[in-house]
Design goal:
This protein has 288 residues and is mostly helical. The chain has helices at residues 3-24, 28-37, 56-59, 62-70, 72-78, 81-89, 102-115, 128-138, 141-152, 188-202, 207-213, 220-235, 246-267, 276-287.
Length: 288
């Protein structure tokens, strides 16, 4: 084979492989989906935190999808029947507003359409057995205790990210009280399951969480411990009583006051016990 012929063969092979390389290349839609959507949704893999998005561009109009992705709460509050039905189906779970341009939302919709399996193609379902085993593994007593400490901040995260109590609260007798910036998490395990919580903690879809943990991600052990703690909070109703600190604080105040008086008595035990005015009066009488 001459040099020119070999060159033509290699050129033909390269040209024929271009569609494959182009298919494998990332697109704006896949990038946005991977950073904002994949923590809560799959395309053909079954429900996660939110619904499976396979085929959703065929079930909803493009404008409806753009409006819902941009601000789901606006549509729910406006009374849109489909948006309200979705909110009720997922127990009022709030989908964060997409802080991206409309062109990026359209790219995500296009990407979902391109990745939706065909009608005859079987869709992968979540492995229920594996999920049940994972949930059982993370719910050990040691994990629950560690998760409680991590949630409250008595144990810092390995990568020094902010602890959960800064923004969240749970009704639990081991927790003093948390922040109100984000959702209350007492029953989050029932609403989202272990898989959903793990997905959000591992790849946060919410802007505030993204900013907080982007450079300080949680480790797998930390995520498992937090899931275990939230599972125990959700399942054990006996712990759903905020701890009463009133009597303890009163006792601490009494003890503290007694200690202060005792210290003052020791420090000033050598001082004169008579009235200063009496001393002045006695000196004046003596000099007169």
């Amino acid at each position: 084979m001459c040099v020119r012929a070999r060159s033509l063969v290699w050129t033909a092979l390269f040209v024929s492989s271009l569609p494959i390389h182009l298919a494998l290349a990332e697109t704006p839609g896949s990038t946005t989906f991977g950073s904002l959507c994949v923590a809560c949704h799959t395309i053909g893999g079954g429900r996660l935190v939110g619904p499976d998005l396979a085929g959703v561009p065929d079930r909803r109009s493009e404008q409806w999808l753009v409006d819902f992705i941009t601000s789901s709460q606006t549509m729910i509050q406006s009374g849109d029947p489909d948006a309200v039905a979705l909110s009720e189906e997922y127990n009022g779970m709030v989908m964060p507003d997409a802080l991206v341009a409309e062109s990026e939302v359209l790219a995500v919709i296009s990407y979902i359409s391109s990745q939706t399996p065909g009608i005859d193609e079987p869709q992968a379902a979540p492995d229920v057995a594996v999920q049940e085993v994972a949930e059982a593994d993370v719910a050990s007593p040691e994990s629950i205790v560690l998760g409680s400490h991590l949630f409250q901040g008595t144990v810092r995260f390995a990568n020094r990210g902010p602890n959960c109590i800064a923004c969240h609260d749970v009704t639990h007798d081991a927790v003093i009280g948390g922040g109100i910036l984000a959702a209350e998490l007492t029953d989050v395990f029932s609403r989202m399951s272990a898989a959903g919580i793990e997905a959000i903690l591992g790849k946060p879809p919410f802007p505030v969480m993204q900013a907080a943990y982007q450079e300080q991600p949680l480790t797998e052990d930390e995520i498992n411990a937090l899931v275990a703690f939230l599972q125990s909070v959700d399942e054990d109703e006996l712990t759903r009583q905020p701890r009463d600190y009133g009597l303890g604080l009163f006792g601490s105040g009494v003890v503290g006051t007694a200690l202060i008086y005792g210290i003052c008595g020791l420090v000033w035990r050598g001082r004169k016990k008579s009235s200063v005015n009496q001393d002045i009066y006695d000196r004046q009488v003596k000099s007169s």
